[in-house]
Amino acid sequence: MKSRNIRGIILSVALLLATLFSPSSAFSQVIENTDMDYFINAYTANYDSLLHHYYFRKNKQLVNSKYKLGSPATEKVDFETVTDSMIYRRLLSLNTKVPLEYNPIVRGYVSMYLKKMNHSIDVMLSMAEYYFPMFEEVLDKYGVPCELKYLAIIESALNTNAVSKAGATGLWQFMMQTGRNYDLEINTFVDERRDPLKATHAAARYLRDLNRIYNNWPLAIASYNCGPGNVNKAIARSGGARSFWGVYSYLPRETRGYIPAYIAAVYMMNFYGLHGLHPKHISIPTANDTVVVHKDVDFASVQKYVGISIDELKNLNPQYKLQFIPQSEKGYALRLPTNKINVFLKYQDSIYSHSRDSLLNSAVKEWKSVKTITHRVRKNETVGRVAEMYGVSAADIRRWNNLSKKAKLKSGQRLIIYKKTQITKDTIKSDNNETTKIAPKDSIVVADTNDLKPTEKSGSSRNSTKKQGKEEKKVTVAKNDTVQNTETNKKEEPAPKTETKKTPAKPAAKTITHTVKSGENLFRIAQKYNTTVDKIKKDNNLKNDNITVGRKLVIKK
Prior knowledge:
This protein is mostly helical and 557 residues long. Helix content is 49%, strand content 8%. It has five domains: 228 residues, Lysozyme; 78 residues, no CATH class; 88 residues, Membrane-bound Lytic Murein Transglycosylase D, Chain A, CATH 3.10.350.10; 39 residues; 46 residues, LysM domain (Membrane-bound Lytic Murein Transglycosylase D, Chain A), CATH 3.10.350.10.
């Protein structure tokens, strides 16, 4: 009886495999219509930019000899001789939590790696030696299967500076809002989507949260690519199917290829040797560490005193967009080769001083004066109208907020606006910690059109400029008259020139009463009034950060 049951099971499996790999199967028909161009183009773009990485340029001879595009990498093994059953058995041999299903679509992606991207596998293997140990440690911390490290290959080709057409950035290709939802700092100076460690923590948390929604790793991976909304729609349209292949036909085109590309990447990174691939090792310093800096630091100053090239600093610290680390109470991490840490600590005072001086003569000076404003859109407002209010271009507003030219604004929508303010020597922090405040680089001011001064509204700025010009002319005439009088009669009317330059007395501190509104917290209120959370707590005798709606807070400025 048992033997009959076993025979029946074997026969059923055989029929299933025969149906699956039959040329007339539904999946075979699908693969004929599956467009892989989007994947090839995105992957190739990220790969090509990766070759500009400092450590690849440092190994230029090796790169030129080994990584020529289109070079045959599968001379030893003809892929056509590798049967489906061989690939299937190899995938089954991998101990993974994520099911690695095999079908003609997956075979198509394996073939794509071997035939169209064979030149890039060696590069991926070299970068994997550097990144994968860190990926595995972080993923394991959040209970995410370690094999999801391979997602970074199809997301970014392991390029920290990868940016998609949609604006997704970094190794894990986070969009701006998703990155901020997972505590990644993104502002004028810093983009932590490019920070390998912090972005990996964010990706692990995001994948963990997605799997809690579906309790199915392939669906969680699919939603990582296209968002839970699209996956939920696919499930509904499929009649409630709860597997990737069950909702396959209802997913966006890009996502239909995402899981097969992932499975193919897992296969290639584990069985590359069976296809004649032999990686060459790029000399990337795996031994590195971080120092926390609280003051302005530019890379040129670090180069001068530590003896490390700016290119190497950029590749070890890709999150700093302007080769500059801004001052911060919380501090920012600067990653250096381990043998350079003590050198930095020895000369850190000189580095801070040199950075402060060079700041006034660098491109950072312009950006240091940028103030970030969040504008709340009102009914019937357009991008052009908002641009007029703040004296910026409509094109910039669209770029800052990832808006298409045809996009219409919705009431209540929030727009990020960057405004420049003046920066002088007085705004640079001195060694004795006495400083006048610069506009916070990441301050958020929620602005309605009614909040703007009349001179800031459309049509009034030109008139105010003309009036100001007339007043300046009057002042100039008055000064000239005074100079003439003093020259003709110096004894009777001494020149008041020195008196006009006296430093005016500081105005008395202002006290403002703020009523807490729904959705506000101490951090937002502190940003609104350009003060700190600690000061508000001290002035109001608050023991913690909890505040209730309607409470009146004293703000001393």
